[in-house]
Amino acid sequence: MSMAPSQFGMFTKSDPARATPDLEYHVQPLSTDRLGDPLHPFPAITMSVCNLRPESRGSCHVTSADPDRHPEIRPNYLSTDNDRRVAVVSVRQAREITTTGALKRYAPEELLPGAEVQSEEELIEAVGNIATTIFHPVGTCAMGQDPGAVVGADLRVHGLQGLRVVDASVMPRIVSGNTASPVIMIAEKAADMIRRGGAV
């Protein structure tokens, strides 16, 4: 309980022609059927691979004036051809890593999606069944001046007085890595703007 869940991470590319990495690995020394479920009773690792530049866009909708009612969240994972391609490459790349000398001697067995899942269509379906945000969603109150933007550069909500949004939701696109440090930067910038302006 005193250690971070991911003990190893790395950045790599889904295509050698890319100028910079577009995949991030989080590797945990444990496994479970789904986050929050009990751990499996055997030694294992979980290789979570994140598409750092997803093209698919989900949405979040208010369903009631009651603030206790949950919003309707539509992740819309894998809704573009490129995101599906990257998902297939990710699984195949992770499999390749487990056959390297450092890991091969342990004879790892693939639990999910399972070694029997091989075709592109099967892999896309399997990834769709296990894909998650790993707690890095952004963009529901995106910054900008376009019709879909919610806040401006000063983080004030368009069309409202006295309300700013200061969290990962103001990012128009996800950053190419974890979101914690950028959110701290957004908060520090917001604090400076509020201090200078003297009002929300």
List keywords for this structure.
single chain; 200 residues; alpha+beta; three-stranded antiparallel beta sheet; two-stranded antiparallel sheet; 4 helices; elongated
Arrangement of strands in the largest sheet: 1-2-3
- What is the tally of beta strands? 5
What best-fitting shape do the alpha-carbon axes yield?
Answer: elongated
- Strand % is 5-15%
Helices, by number, come to: 4
Average per-residue pLDDT, rounded, comes to 92
* End-to-end distance: 39 Å
Oligomer: single chain
Instruction: List SSEs in N-to-C order.
Output: EEEEEHHHH
Rg, Cα atoms, Å: 20 Å
Poorly predicted spans: none
What's this model, at a glance?
With 200 residues, this protein is of the alpha+beta class.
Characterization of this structure:
The chain is an alpha+beta fold and 200 residues long. Helices cover 26% and strands 12% of the residues. It is built from four helices and five strands; from the N terminus they run βββββαααα. It has helices at 81-98, 101-104, 120-130, 180-197; strands at residues 8-12, 23-28, 46-51, 59-61, 72-74. The chain has a three-stranded antiparallel beta sheet. A two-stranded antiparallel ribbon has the order 4-5. Helix 1 packs across helix 3 (120-130). The radius of gyration is 20 Å and the shape is elongated. The protein starts with 7 loop residues before the first strand and ends with a helix.
